[in-house]
Write a structure and sequence with these properties.
3 domains, 19 strands, 16 helices, Dipeptide-binding Protein, domain 3, D-Maltodextrin-Binding Protein, domain 2, alpha+beta, six-stranded mixed beta sheet, single chain, about 25% helix
């Protein structure tokens, strides 16, 4: 069934010159103004809806989303904490004007302001200053604000469109209404999504007139299609096939740097995992080097901490995780009252991710390793959506999961897993850990932030809410003839810049998107699809993690 896209009158009004912050302190100050072009009037949003918070990959948000909630989502992304690297500051772009035939909506000044900052979020006020300027007044410094705003979940939306659909994410997923280079033409459930180039796009037009998303959970099947020429690019080829792709003159492999973490989650409300010594024993019973050597591609790293080494402030130099020591693990288990071990369930979803390229094999190897210290593991394979919901609800005692950076800052890893924004996946929060995470998030000085993150990493090692396993290298592969092909470290490939030498570009990924409404999902396959349709004020550079202006 064909899908309509955006209405003609819902175009971008215009873009004024963008002045980047002169310093991180200015960007994170209490009154930093961003010049921005919005869809329709950004000022006409309701004032009554409460903000909602962004969840991790283990939780999908559902429900009513109004314009205020969408702006509050930007707030929640900034809430408590974050930090861009200096690359988040960009030079001003040339002004981009709308098509002459598109009328500019009349400007209506509006300001939404909280009485104070006690509600727990980050925004004190959001104000439409003039037709092309929006001012965000923050409750505290946030050096990661630009990086968060660039995240696709916080794309600018048309208020009339939101109101017409009652904020229903399912309805809006059926007929996406965005400002991006592509529009959704048709979604054939279970088979493909067909995008068509947006003829009224305000920026550089898409190279391919038609973009098709297909999917297969089998890496071998994806590669066979690429070799046969039935698709132009694939995601996550099997690491064992990297050499095959590199040796084929008709193909090209693009490696992603590992801005991710694979971990074994432990829920501290599920006995015997409520005993810290038991969690420490499990940490010592797992040979992480063996896992990385056997089940990850070259270039992947054994994880010593929850954040990858590239995220600084965040990563603590010199701090190592527990050494593999099954004898000490047995001693701790006996000391905790489990000399003969215990039975437990290990859950996972059979979905390939860059941080977990072979989930079934990793689960089986962990099962075998824990058996050596007397822990008898029953493996449970779950459907992806049901698994994420169950983990987020705190139902799974032990599980394999991971995290791919939404934006390149440590807050994206720590805050949504171990602080007040966290769901129940690890059980009860650790107050000392929450305190340090929140303190680090509100500082703009990198050295001072790192002092708190050093404590955070030490506390995670002490409490063992999870066991860091690996930072996995992943890749995308394309026909060698595709110009502009790339692999994004954030998994948000921009297909509009790719030229396949024909009118149609076909991409095959691991799984079907859940919906096409970025603000209501955290699934990577979903984000990649809807990022072709929606845009935020800022964006990540093609193939990178640096921030640059988009609608701003």
């Amino acid at each position: 069934m064909p899908r309509e896209h955006m209405e003609k009158e819902s175009r971008i009004a215009a873009v004024k010159s963008f002045r980047p912050p002169r310093s991180v302190d200015e960007a994170c100050g209490s009154d930093y103004t961003r010049n921005a072009g919005f869809v329709r009037s950004p000022s006409r949003f309701p004032q009554s809806d409460p903000p909602i918070q962004k969840g991790g990959e283990a939780m999908r948000r559902k429900g009513f989303v109004s314009m205020w909630v969408l702006l509050a989502l930007v707030l929640a992304a900034c809430a408590p904490g974050a930090t861009p690297t200096p690359t988040a500051t960009v030079p001003p772009p040339s002004p981009t004007l709308p098509p002459a035939a598109t009328p500019t909506p009349a400007f209506q000044p509006m300001k939404v302001e909280a009485p104070d900052c006690n509600y727990g979020g980050e925004f004190k006020a959001i104000e439409a200053v003039d037709p092309y300027t929006v001012r965000f007044t923050l409750c505290y410094p946030d050096p990661a604000f630009p990086a968060k705003v660039a995240f696709a979940a916080f794309a600018i939306q048309d208020k009339d469109y939101l109101d017409a659909n009652g904020g229903d994410s399912v309805k809006m997923s059926e007929k996406p209404n965005g400002t991006g280079p592509y529009k959704v033409k048709e979604w054939i459930r279970g088979d493909r999504i067909i995008f068509e180039a947006n003829p009224d796009y305000w920026g550089e037009k898409a190279k391919a007139k038609t973009l098709i998303f297909r999917w297969s959970k089998e890496a071998a099947a994806r590669l066979l299609e690429l070799q046969a020429g039935t698709v132009d690019g694939i995601d996550n080829p099997n690491p064992n096939d990297f050499a095959t792709i590199q040796q084929d003159p008709n193909l090209k492999l693009y490696i992603r740097p590992p801005l991710n973490i694979a971990y074994l989650g432990l829920n501290n409300t599920k006995p015997p995992l409520d005993n810290e010594k038991v969690r420490q024993a499990i940490a010592m019973a797992i040979d992480r080097e063996r896992l990385v050597k056997n089940f990850y591609p070259a270039g992947s790293m054994v994880a010593e901490q929850f954040v990858p080494p590239a995220l600084k402030p965040g990563y603590t130099e010199g701090l190592k995780w527990y050494d593999y020591n099954p004898q000490e693990a047995k001693r701790l288990l006996a000391e905790a009252g489990y000399p003969n071990g215990f039975e437990i369930t290990l859950s996972y979803r059979d979905v390939v991710r860059g941080y977990l390229p072979e989930p079934g094999k990793v689960a089986q190897d962990i099962q075998a390793q824990l058996a050596e210290v007397g822990i008898r593991v029953q493996i449970k394979v779950m459907e992806s959506g049901a698994f994420l919901d169950s983990v987020a609800a705190g139902n799974e005692p032990m599980y394999l999961l991971g995290w791919l950076a939404d934006y390149p800052d440590a807050t994206n890893f720590y805050d949504y897993h171990f602080a007040n924004e966290a769901n129940k996946q690890f059980g009860n929060l650790f107050p000392d850990l929450v305190e340090e995470i929140r303190a680090a998030a509100k500082l703009s000085d990198p050295a001072e932030r790192q002092k708190h993150y050093d404590k955070v990493n030490e506390l995670i090692k002490l409490h063992v809410p999870m066991i860091p396993l690996a930072h996995g290298v992943s890749a995308a592969a394309f026909k060698a003839t595709v110009k502009g092909a790339h692999a994004s470290p954030l998994n948000n490939e921009r297909f509009s810049v790719m030229d396949p030498g024909k009118d149609e570009l076909i991409w095959m990924q691991n799984a079907e998107p859940i919906v096409l409404w970025c603000a209501d999902e955290t699934d990577g396959e979903t984000f990649r699809a809807c990022e072709q349709v929606y845009e935020s004020l800022l964006a990540y550079k093609v193939g990178g993690a640096e921030v640059e202006p988009a609608l701003a």
